[in-house]
């Protein structure tokens, strides 16, 4: 607290529990986290912040426009020099603990652009509404992550043949203040953990990972709900069963295995863990509400992604989905990176238009025009993004 305030809190031991010093409450989150002023704060306890579509126009998302999703309190006084990562679990041959220096010097470094989208991105559109942060479209990012392969470290520890899952543990603390409770402890099946792009990352966009995004070490599982990418990572357990940490059960990051009518009660046994994220896209230029002079054409651009899959086709419509034209679509920088698209559009006459964008994945599955399957927590809304344009 003293370092955040720039002075010791003389009677700090008398400050009632759960009271935040005024000077800290006044701190604005934009300067605190080095975020652009146009970012939208959805919650301050814990901090949750999202981008607007036009802020995500960069090919690689810089920190200023990267959404923040926290389930607990950001750890204080993180010391990279004493930080350790322990690998243990029922299915670890010989549990080991590594310093950051060990990880950085023992294993080869790899860099990938990885798309991280919160499972609840788009939740605000669900009806009946779902509780939780009311994300619109901006809980997605694609940064350049550098680290070592989780698979290399797991092999160094040794993985028993009965291993099926990994679970992460981290240094953030539960909002209740109860040290025995973890805010979140999720994981992925062993096959995802062993993919070459699954990283134990210590750099984001070539610099130390910002504190809010997991400094000094984070797990990055591109293409899966970003809740599987544990920040402030200090332990990974190799499990002989599906990981049973906080937010692995109930309706957390799980959806009905079969579609249900909106508002239905769904039994635990009928809920399935979200794995790869569905195909989705975002028009990041122009900003919705753009004005265009008659006779001028407009070049739109944006990104598309499809979880574990690639995007194979990108289309746009200016007549509310009646007819579709194709966009130019780039290959991803690497597997699990979002792909950039562009299209130059001519409008027939003055008036109001909407540009709708639709991505199709490599299995031929396209984004729905309207909200897809309702689920209790409002996950996986991959409906088409649309922007307004006026030709004057
Ligand atoms: N330790 C820890 N890791 C975490 C979380 C968290 O609260 N604590 N939130 C998860 C969720 S739900 C998401 S969507 C992503 C958000 O990553 P970001 O804040 O870096 O954008 O981090 C994931 N990793
Ligand atoms: Mo999330």
């Amino acid at each position: 607290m003293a370092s955040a305030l720039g002075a010791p809190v003389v009677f700090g031991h008398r400050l009632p529990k759960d009271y935040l010093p005024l000077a800290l409450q006044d701190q604005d989150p934009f300067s605190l986290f080095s975020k652009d002023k146009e970012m939208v704060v959805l919650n301050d306890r814990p901090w949750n912040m999202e981008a607007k579509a036009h802020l995500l126009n960069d090919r690689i998302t810089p920190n200023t426009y990267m959404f923040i999703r926290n389930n607990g309190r950001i750890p204080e006084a993180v010391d990279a020099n004493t930080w350790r990562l322990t690998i243990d679990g029922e299915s670890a041959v010989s549990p080991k603990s590594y310093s950051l220096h060990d990880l950085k010097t023992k294993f080869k470094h790899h860099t990938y652009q990885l798309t991280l989208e919160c499972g609840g991105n788009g939740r605000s559109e669900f009806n009946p509404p779902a509780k939780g942060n009311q994300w619109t479209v901006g809980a997605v990012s694609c940064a350049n992550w550098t680290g070592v392969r989780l698979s290399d470290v797991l092999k160094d520890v040794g993985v028993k043949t009965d291993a099926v899952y990994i679970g992460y543990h981290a240094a953030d603390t539960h909002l209740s203040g109860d040290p025995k409770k973890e805010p979140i402890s999720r994981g992925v099946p062993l096959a995802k953990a062993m993919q070459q792009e699954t990283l134990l990352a210590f750099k984001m966009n070539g610099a130390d990972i910002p504190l809010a995004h997991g400094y000094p070490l984070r797990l990055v599982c591109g293409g899966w709900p970003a809740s599987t990418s544990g920040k402030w990572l200090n332990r990974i357990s190799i499990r002989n069963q599906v990981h049973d940490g906080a937010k692995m059960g109930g309706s957390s990051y799980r959806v009905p295995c079969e579609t249900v009518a909106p508002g239905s009660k769904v039994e635990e046994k009928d809920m399935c863990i979200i794995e790869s994220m569905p195909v989705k896209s975002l028009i990041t230029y122009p900003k919705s509400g753009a004005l265009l002079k008659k006779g001028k054409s407009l070049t739109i651009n944006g990104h598309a992604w499809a979880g574990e899959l690639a995007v194979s086709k990108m289309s746009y419509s200016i007549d509310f989905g009646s007819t579709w034209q194709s966009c130019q679509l780039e290959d991803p920088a690497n597997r699990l990176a979002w792909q950039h698209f562009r299209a130059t559009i001519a409008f027939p006459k003055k008036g109001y238009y909407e540009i709708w964008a639709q991505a199709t994945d490599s299995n031929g599955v396209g984004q729905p025009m309207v909200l897809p399957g309702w689920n209790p927590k409002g996950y996986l809304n991959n409906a088409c993004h649309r922007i307004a344009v006026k030709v004057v």
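DSSP finds six helices and 24 strands in the chain. Residues 66-72, 116, 118, 141, 170, 172, 183-184, 213, 226-227, 229-232 surround MTE (ligand 1) (CB under 6 Å).
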